Amino acid sequence: MKKVLVSLISLLLICQCGFTDSPTPSPDPDSVQSDTIGVWEITLDDHYFTDSISINDFMSFTADEGDQYLVVDLTVSNTGKQAETFLPSVYFDTDLQAYLYYDEDYEFSASKLMGLTDDLHDRFFNPLITKSGIIVFAIPESIIDDEKPLELTFSMGDESVSFDIRQSSVLSQTLETAAPGACTTGA
Question: What is the overall mean pLDDT for the chain?
Answer without folding.
Answer: 80
